[in-house]
């Protein structure tokens, strides 16, 4: 538990200088391991603390952060934030919430003891790399890792807030390079669990191996429009690339394409999207947001209709609404909004319904950070996957592009599967969706 | 930043655990980020990053730890944790520190630690906003960013190297949003350098705002892009991202040493069309991707990567040199103390050729002129890359027809290097941030305009 006395003093000093303030104290500890050619190649440990101060004085917001924590550094932190506030425009909508309360996440649930010793973790990293690299036609496993991170966030304010969230995340991942003569293919995947004991290297090895070998035989398909299914990872990546459409902050700034769509249809009538920060099975679980507001389930799109945007207290004040508990801020960033754990409600289609006839199953999308325009919805991405018919993979596909407008795609979801799956980081949960008439270039 | 006697005792402790080599990377990094929305200051943020990275090398194994606690006992605790499984009798002893001062090629006149210059920065961004909105009344939003950083680093190694460097970065970016009913489109432009706030005196805020607005208006009227294999002319400047992605990453020993690059065994071979020569040069005065020394304490240099199509060098850091036998090139870089160094690019560009842009466009029966490129990514093991066109035009019968939107170019590094048939004279450089195993580092990409005879264009038409 962090000794908060120096930080309480810092907040008192802010008040003495006529400001209200809140302070984020992030404490991160990590261990990560990488293997190569059957040996441990890299082992990294870390232990860092970062302070992020937000002051509001005369309706002006100032931000500063520091990784130094001595008294002089804390004074400098306050001075910088107050100087920065002088230059900011008045923002009466941004206020330190009056929420004097103490909130503490459940360590037994989110940060259970992990009994895997450092030696056992090293053995796991070596086993993962060695076993995968030893498979037929796998040239090497250039990217792999086993890691554990413990993150603690404490949020204090001059209004008496004292909130603390602590969680443990264990993960492993591997990208294998398969080779057959001059033809190469790379595929990768990962796993996330609360404890190291829950990780299963064999499952990961089988999946990565199968994907890499299958891709070796991949070739383009003729350019035309296809029905498309994205696998869970690709679908989660695509969804997150366009989720600023749910941001009330972007709407306030005039750069949200859905800013005037509340109450209107933005998706097919059977599409339902909810944010579920209270689902403890996921790693997006949050007890409170970055302003200390308690998080709760929030229906966002109901039967295709946009019900609400994601709000913090400032955007809510701007639009005359209540905050939805989606304030987002890191120690080094300004107040924004963001989803915690998006969930698409399963539909009624069975696997057979989803996979009838011909379609492309896209398992990998390249360029999500550069080939998407969140404002217009347009995207054009490199892709690979499989040409399928009636649920059977007919041909591995690579060297193609998929291009469409995401917002238009949402309105022509052909089928929604009846089973929801987590992405491997366990941050988004959704069923399989099938989209019709998508442009593919090969 | 770290007392010499503390560094000595910590590195002695590392060698006492049997490490072959150890180094300390101490970083104190101030930053200030100003963001405007239209003519209003959206927020100002400043901060101080401080921490120490400790690297222990046992054979080809790297153990890396970091903390922002600079007490000797905290640093020794990191070493103890790292070396727990590899501890052995000492194999070498530390050499006494010999402080080396390298020439400062990139002096800063207005450093962040001396002058916040906030009022001037606000004025600059306001002028850019006015210019953008004056360009066309459809420009409904502008977003301005001004980032200034001052990174002080100190490096100690068990081989006796002790050195310091100060890096001053400044970057200004403007984005304009054009609106017409429910349609929106964006355009942006930026400038940056390895220097202080004096950057602004070399720049015209009106030009920056107008250029962002011009692109936004072009994109607002853009049509869906045709798709398929076709020739593409890629404009100069940030168009160099094609080489950065398609080739540069594949020449880093980070990939080469693992045989995870398609070029790992191609040194001395023709890997590109003979019209292609390319360099990675960290020495260019005050240029965004330059450095004085790399993050392993080696003076930077110019590295000829490809000469007339032949692969002439890789980019080699310390571990890469140890694993491949190639000479270090001063390319060991990292985002911060949180990352172990890795071989990374600096200012990477294709050298000028003898062709004209107009001739390139005129030579296409049906193709795309990609005037401006966005970002992209590459898979080093296969060489497969993708990158986005942010301002593109459809060309037919040698004439530009109309602007296109949502176009992506995909190919592989080896294929596209051989498909370059014309290289222009108009070399230009552009700033970018490159993300890889050692974090996000400032890099410059660049090229003259060039023509690729055949590449897959992904469009939505």
From TrEMBL, chain A:
Name all Metalloprotease TldD/E central domain ranges. Answer: 113-215
Annotated Metalloprotease TldD/E C-terminal domain ranges read: 224-442
* Pfam families xrefs: PmbA_TldD_1st (PF01523), PmbA_TldD_2nd (PF19290), PmbA_TldD_3rd (PF19289)
Question: Which ranges of the sequence are coiled-coil?
Answer: none
Q: Which GO terms describe its biological process?
A: proteolysis
Superkingdom of source: Bacteria
Q: What region holds the Metalloprotease TldD/E N-terminal domain?
A: 21-85
Instruction: Write out the entry's keywords from A to Z.
Output: Hydrolase, Protease
What's the name of the protein? Zn-dependent protease
UniProtKB/TrEMBL annotation, chain B:
Gene Ontology biological process terms, A to Z: proteolysis
Q: Might you report a single GO cellular component term? A: cytosol
Q: Tell me, what's a Pfam family for it?
A: PmbA_TldD_3rd
Q: Does the keyword Zinc-finger apply?
A: no
- The Metalloprotease TldD/E N-terminal domain covers 22-83
Q: Which UniProt keywords apply?
A: Hydrolase, Metalloprotease, Protease
- Name one molecular function that GO assigns to this entry: metallopeptidase activity
UniProt domain Metalloprotease TldD/E central: residue ranges: 114-220
| Domain Metalloprotease TldD/E C-terminal span(s) in chain numbering | 227-459
Q: Which SUPFAM superfamilies match?
A: Putative modulator of DNA gyrase, PmbA/TldD
Q: So what family is this one in?
A: Belongs to the peptidase U62 family.
- Matches recorded under PANTHER family: METALLOPROTEASE TLDD, UNCHARACTERIZED PROTEIN TLDD AND PMBA
Q: What is this protein called?
A: TldD protein
Which organism encodes this protein? Saccharospirillum salsuginis
């Amino acid at each position: 538990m962090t000794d908060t006395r120096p930080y309480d003093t810092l907040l008192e000093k802010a008040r003495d200088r006529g400001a209200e303030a809140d302070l984020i104290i992030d404490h991160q500890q990590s261990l990560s391991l990488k293997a190569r050619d059957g040996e441990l190649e890299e082992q990294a440990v870390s232990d860092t603390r970062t302070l992020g101060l937000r002051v509001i004085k005369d309706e002006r917001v100032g931000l500063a952060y520091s990784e130094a924590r001595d008294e002089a550094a804390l004074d400098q932190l306050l001075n910088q934030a107050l100087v920065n506030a002088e230059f900011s425009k008045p923002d009466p909508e941004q206020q330190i919430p009056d929420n004097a309360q103490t909130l503490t996440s459940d360590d037994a649930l989110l940060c259970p003891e992990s009994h895997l010793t450092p030696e056992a973790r090293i053995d796991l990293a070596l086993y993962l790399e060695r076993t995968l690299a030893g498979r037929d036609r796998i040239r090497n496993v250039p990217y792999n890792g086993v890691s554990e991170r413990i993150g603690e966030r404490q949020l204090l304010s001059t209004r008496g807030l004292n909130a603390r969230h602590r969680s443990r995340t264990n993960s492993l991942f591997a990208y294998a390079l398969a080779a057959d003569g001059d033809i190469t293919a790379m595929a990768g995947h990962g796993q996330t669990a609360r404890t190291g004991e829950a990780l299963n290297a064999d499952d990961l090895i089988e999946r990565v191996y199968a994907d890499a070998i299958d891709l070796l035989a991949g070739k383009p398909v003729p350019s035309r429009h296809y029905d498309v299914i994205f696998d869970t990872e690709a679908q989660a990546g695509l969804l997150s690339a366009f989720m600023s459409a749910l941001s009330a902050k972007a709407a306030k700034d005039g750069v949200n394409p859905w800013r005037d769509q509340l109450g209107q249809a933005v998706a097919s009538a059977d599409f339902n999207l909810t944010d579920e920060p209270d689902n403890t099975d996921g790693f997006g679980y949050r007890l409170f947001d970055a302003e200390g507001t308690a998080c709760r389930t929030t229906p966002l799109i109901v039967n295709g209709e946009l019900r609400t945007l994601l709000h913090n207290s400032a955007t809510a004040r701007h639009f005359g609404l209540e905050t939805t508990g989606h304030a987002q801020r890191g120690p080094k960033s300004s107040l924004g909004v963001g989803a915690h754990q998006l969930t698409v409600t399963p539909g009624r289609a069975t696997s057979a319904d989803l996979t009838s006839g011909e379609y492309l199953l896209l398992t990998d999308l390249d360029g999500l950070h550069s080939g998407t325009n969140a404002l217009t919805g347009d995207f054009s991405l490199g892709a690979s996957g499989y040409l399928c018919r009636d649920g059977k993979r007919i041909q591995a596909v690579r060297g193609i592009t998929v291009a469409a407008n995401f917002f238009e795609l949402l309105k022509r979801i052909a089928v929604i599967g009846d089973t929801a799956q987590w992405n491997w980081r366990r941050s988004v949960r959704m069923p399989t969706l099938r989209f019709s008439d998508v442009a593919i270039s090969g | 930043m770290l007392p010499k006697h503390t560094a000595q005792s910590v590195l002695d402790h590392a060698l006492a655990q049997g490490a072959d080599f150890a180094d300390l990377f101490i970083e104190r990094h101030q930053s200030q980020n100003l963001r405007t929305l239209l003519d209003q200051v959206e927020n100002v943020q400043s901060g101080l990053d401080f921490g120490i990275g400790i690297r222990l090398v046992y054979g080809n194994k790297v153990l890396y730890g970091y903390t922002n606690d600079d007490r000797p006992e905290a640093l020794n605790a990191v070493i103890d944790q790292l070396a727990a499984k590899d501890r052995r009798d000492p194999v070498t002893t530390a050499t006494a520190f010999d402080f080396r001062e390298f020439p400062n090629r990139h002096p800063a006149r207005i450093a962040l630690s001396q002058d916040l210059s906030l009022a001037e920065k606000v004025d600059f961004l306001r002028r850019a906003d006015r210019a953008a909105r004056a360009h066309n009344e459809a420009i409904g939003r502008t977003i301005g960013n001004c980032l200034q950083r001052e990174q002080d680093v100190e490096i100690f190694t068990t081989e006796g190297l002790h050195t310091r460097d100060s890096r001053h970065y400044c970057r200004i970016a403007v984005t304009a949003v054009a609106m017409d009913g429910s349609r929106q489109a964006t355009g942006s432009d930026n400038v940056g350098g390895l220097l202080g706030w004096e950057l602004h005196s070399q720049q015209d805020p009106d030009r920056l705002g107008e250029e962002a607005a011009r692109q936004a208006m072009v994109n607002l009227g853009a049509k869906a892009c045709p798709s398929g294999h076709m020739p593409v002319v890629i404009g100069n400047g940030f168009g160099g991202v094609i080489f950065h992605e398609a080739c540069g990453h594949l020449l880093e020993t980070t990939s080469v040493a693992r045989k995870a690059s398609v070029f790992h065994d191609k040194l001395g071979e023709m890997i590109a069309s003979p019209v292609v020569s390319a360099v990675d040069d960290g020495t260019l005065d005050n240029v965004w991707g330059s450095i004085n020394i790399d993050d392993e304490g080696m003076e930077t240099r110019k590295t000829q990567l490809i000469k007339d199509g032949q692969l002439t060098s890789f980019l080699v850091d310390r571990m890469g040199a140890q694993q491949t036998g190639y000479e270090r090139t001063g390319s060991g870089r990292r985002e911060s103390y949180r990352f172990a160094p890795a071989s990374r690019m600096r200012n990477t560009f294709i050298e000028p050729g003898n062709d004209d842009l107009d001739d390139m466009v005129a030579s296409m029966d049906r193709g795309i002129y990609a005037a401006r490129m966005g970002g992209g990514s590459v898979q080093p093991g296969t060489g497969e890359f993708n990158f986005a066109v942010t301002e593109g035009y459809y060309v037919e019968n040698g004439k530009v027809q109309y602007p296109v939107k949502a176009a992506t170019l995909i190919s592989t590094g080896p294929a596209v290097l051989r498909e370059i048939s014309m290289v222009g004279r108009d070399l230009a450089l552009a700033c970018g941030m490159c993300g890889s195993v050692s974090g996000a580092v400032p890099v410059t990409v660049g090229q003259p305009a060039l023509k690729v005879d055949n590449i897959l264009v992904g469009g939505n038409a």
